Amino acid sequence: MGVGIDLTDVKQWPKMFWGFLVCLFLAWLVLQYDNYVIGDLHRGYREASKVLKDVKDGKPIKTYEEYVTEKKESYKKAMEKYEAGLEKKKPSKPFILKQNDYDYIIQNKDMPGKFSFGERMNQFQLTYVAVLLLGGMLIRNTIGVPKFLQPGTVAARPFIKPGIIILGAYYMWSDVLRVGMIGLVLVLLFVMGAAIAISIWGKRAKADDGLMGLMSAGVGVCGVSAAVAVAPVVNAKPRDFFYAIGTILLFGTLALFTFPYIGKLLGMPQPVYGAWVGTAILNTAQLVAAATWYGHEALLTANVVNIVRIGFIPIIVLWCIYYYVVRPARQAGESGASVNTIQVIKEKFPIFILGFFIMVTLNEMKLFSPDVKDLLGRDIVKIFMAIGFAGVGLNIAFDDLRKAGGIAFVIGIVAATVKAVLAALFVMALGPGPFTIKQ
């Protein structure tokens, strides 16, 4: 950290201004990349793939005008069904290729290079989170961050918290019941089991408490969100985010490209596979991608298991309070002062987690329309998260990483792998029945 910052002290705001402005600019710049490369080019790739398939299959070639008219008419009919109450889900606006891209596909029978590039970036999960973290690290460790900017970069990091609160608008308590008690048992065994195992192993290996707290939460529960929730409890440093999030993203990326093939090799039905990836893959975006790759039923089950897992965020926070704060304090106080556990919990429990669950409850009450949820989840959450991760990246120094040691990375990868193997055996033994979502 290195810079004393108190966001509640108005007198400190002027010295935070320029550094925060840098984080705001970086966030805006990378979000433009994310919207275009991960968003527009990814949608363009899917649409171009459909057109290219028709061309290669020898279907009659439409003129560009005919292609555009067909897309608009199809959307119009879907909207009419939705407005008449025949469809529950509002149709998304179609992605229509630009004429030069459409003509390129027709003439060359090939995919435009920009769409292939966007798809590669999407496959490797080079979203705004990864770019901001890696880009911030590159700046910090090459040209450096001037001292007058450092207070603002530190002040930007807490902006992740309101993003997590708003994210609650996407979840419903009722979804937990859709997979029954067996889903809760699955998550309890492998989520809390992994978190506790990592904490104990980390202590015995004498790894840094802040780093292992983030690792236990991220590898055990749900990746970045859980790591952020636990960070203030264990007094995590910027370098701890690098190891924890790096481990989460690395394992998730490997899982994304291998789990679908492993599932097919083992003959997993879609609901079973969905339960497996919902438990084993650490990052929500990678989890959804791996499930979608396998099939629609797999995605439905994976989403529900993931929601159950997210519900364990406050439990993992309480575990970290006990293991990294209360327990050491009691051990140190055996010959002297006693520890007020309730007071410690009040001081260390991140209040923004309560805001997250308030948003979940409001969503359960159906107070958020689909359009409102899209605005919250696609735009506002990204803005807060991007500002926060710009600050995190700019505060990661390689000198700190060298001091951390590699044991935490080994512990995280081994624990995630063991969890994945055991979870696979468990869900395959139960079969598809408990995990099938009725549509």
Description:
By secondary structure, this protein is mainly α. The chain has two domains: 43-119, no CATH class; 129-435, no CATH class. It contains 20 helices and no strands. The chain has helices spanning 13-56, 64-83, 99-108, 113-123, 128-141, 150-156, 160-167, 180-204, 209-222, 224-234, 238-265, 270-280, 284-294, 296-310, 313-332, 341-348, 351-364, 370-394, 398-404, 407-430. The radius of gyration is 23 Å and the shape is globular.
Draw up the topology in text.
Layout: H1 13-56, H2 64-83, H3 99-108, H4 113-123, H5 128-141, H6 150-156, H7 160-167, H8 180-204, H9 209-222, H10 224-234, H11 238-265, H12 270-280, H13 284-294, H14 296-310, H15 313-332, H16 341-348, H17 351-364, H18 370-394, H19 398-404, H20 407-430
Helix pairs in contact: 1-3, 1-4, 1-6, 1-18, 5-18, 6-18, 7-17, 7-18, 8-9, 8-20, 9-10, 9-11, 9-15, 9-20, 10-15, 11-13, 11-19, 11-20, 12-13, 12-14, 12-20, 13-14, 15-16
